[in-house]
Amino acid sequence: MAEQNKSKKPKTAIVPTREEDYPQWYQEVIKSADLAETSPVRGCMVIKPWGYGLWENIQQNLDARFKATGHKNAYFPLFIPLSFLQREADHVDGFAKECAVVTHHRLEPDVDGQLQPAGELEEPLIVRPTSETIIGEMFSRWIESYRDLPLLINQWANVVRWEMRTRLFLRTAEFLWQEGHTAHATEQEAIDETLQMLDIYKDFAENTMAMPVITGSKSEAERFPGAVETYSIEAMMQDGKALQAGTSHFLGQNFSKAQDITFQNDNKEVEYAWTTSWGVSTRLIGGLIMTHADDDGLVLPPRLAPSHIVIIPITFKSDDPDSILNYCHKLADDLGVLNYHGRNVTVEIDNRDIRGGEKTWGWVKKGIPIRLEIGPRDMASDSVFMARRDQGHKEKQGIARSEFIANVTIILDEIQQGLFERAVARRDSATKTIDSKEDFYQYFKGDGSGLAYAHFCGDPSVEAKIKADLKVTLRCVPLNGHEEEGVCIFTGKPSKQRVLWSKAY
After folding, report:
1. Is residue 263 scored above 60 in pLDDT?
2. Which DSSP state fits 287?
3. CA distance 24 to 41
4. Residues 152, 185: contact at Cβ < 8 Å?
5. Is the Cβ–Cβ distance between 99 and 130 less than 8 Å?
6. Are 289 and 298 in contact (CB under 8 A)?
7. The CATH homologous superfamily of the domain defined by 432-502
């Protein structure tokens, strides 16, 4: 009987399924969606056009938000002198083990004709793991007076952190990101900036990525090296683990003092500036996959999808393929003039000479929001045959061409909202409020995962023991909600609010 039931298990495009092997499922989704692949360089990835299209849309959306709040884009060197990194003690301690170092500037053949490094540098150069130190050096040159403040700079770049264990998009030796860096005349201005950028990340995650997040401050152990406060957006993936999807750091005057970023105030007194930094990376694509994808492949929120619609012409030898193709192109043209959240509706026409089923499943796995099949009958009735990626692959409906065009942006928003609500429901069902140490350890033992709110006194040694015992970390101290007087479930000491705990990527 068991074998019989096993045989009735529905076929999926992705093998193994999420339930069978979540880490391998994740890799297979990336492969089947043609997003990226590993490169010949250890720990690095090649981002393919469909994956890079996602990153371009992330860039464009966030870049517009940054510029609307007064930030300007600039670019700084990939290489940072070693002495710069050493100026801020906590910073160098935090990144030293992940740094890639350049020590020579040319290659010369040896006696066997093999190229060997030559021309040793006077000072080693660090391939940027982050840019606080090099940007701080430039800020110290650019800022003289309070009239030069605030200085609001953003950079789109690549960074290198020599990770030992890598996973495409989530953790790679080289990745793409943006890093904002600002300098301010007052502490409060810098704090306001830090929280403003956190809110931008939250709004982008929820309203563009359809990925619900929790905002909060990091514990001292999880704080960015050299920061006074680190704030993050935390998302829950389908396996119940948390993902830090973006961070915003209030740096106080730590980097200003290390790098001599000073200004003359309106009383002609010299002060140190107050600085911030904030960033998100291609890790967002990993978060997108693990929030929305299913056992048939990628599922894309329309506001971020590289293309919104694919049209698949259905022709047979006896049909007039040119007429059907012309019909498809005219439809694509009519759809392409429509505006959807600041972008024209983007349409693919898949006229490849391959089997129809192969085309369909290829686009299912890529996660395109809407598929249209158009054959002779659809053309004759001036209609389309529509499938939505947020529904089962067998759920299709015929709809008049004019009606589809009139309602396509509404349909796309229905998909967008549905994905967000689905993710919220999944997170809420895997979130628990815990009031005892015993229940906490029981909840997270073994492979147990999910989110938990529990009172905590803030003792770093207790936090370290929990991490060692359960591989559970304090994700954040939430900014909104969960404020209540209580007792730490681990020590019995007073606690001002519940904090968020989870296993994490």
Report:
1. yes
2. H
3. 21
4. no
5. no
6. yes
7. C-terminal domain of ProRS (3.30.110.30)
The DSSP bridge pattern shows strands 309-313 and 343-344 to be unpaired
CA distance 127 to 79: 5
First vs last C-alpha separation in the chain = 39
Is it the case that residue 3 has pLDDT exceeding 70?
Answer: no
Segments of the chain assigned to CATH 3.40.50.800: 309-421
CATH of domain 309-421: 3.40.50.800
Q: What is the pTM of this model?
A: 0.95
Write the DSSP string, 97-137: GG-EEEEEEEEEE-TTS-EEEEEEEEEEEEEPS--HHHHHH
DSSP per-residue codes, 443-476: HHSTT---EEEEE----HHHHHHHHHHHS-EEEE
For 228-293, the three-class secondary structure string (H helix, E strand, C coil) is: CEEEEEEEECCCCCEEEEEEEEEEECHHHHHHCCEEECCCCCEEECEEEEEEEECHHHHHHHHHHC
What are 332-347's pLDDT values in tens digits? 999 999 999 999 999 9
Considering the domain 22-292, what is its CATH architecture? 2-Layer Sandwich (3.30)
What residues are paired with 453 via a beta bridge? 433, 500
Residues 6+ apart with CB under 8 A from 301: 208, 209, 210, 288, 292, 369, 415, 416, 419, 420
How far apart (Å, rounded) are the C-alpha atoms in residues 416 and 411? 9
The mean pLDDT of the chain is: 95
Section 62-91 average pLDDT:
92
- Averaged pLDDT for residues 69-83: 97
Categorize the per-residue pLDDT at 467 as very low, low, confident or very high, splitting at 50, 70 and 90.
Answer: very high
333 phi and psi angles, rounded to 5 deg: -65, -45
* Unique residue bearing structure tokens 């698949």: 312
Pairwise CA distance, residues 218 & 230, whole Å: 5
Q: Give one DSSP letter per residue of 295-310, joined into a string.
A: TTB----TTT-S-SEE
Structure tokens at 347: 């349409």
Whether 8 and 20 have beta carbons less than 8 Å apart is answered as no
Q: Read off the pLDDT of each residue in 132-142 and give the average, rounded to a whole number.
A: 96
- Check pLDDT > 70 for residue 1: no
Distance CA 202, CA 476 (A): 14
| pLDDT level of residue 8 (50, 70, 90 thresholds) | low
Distance CA(433)–CA(11), nearest Å, equals: 37
Q: Which helix (H) or strand (E) holds 424?
A: helix 401-429
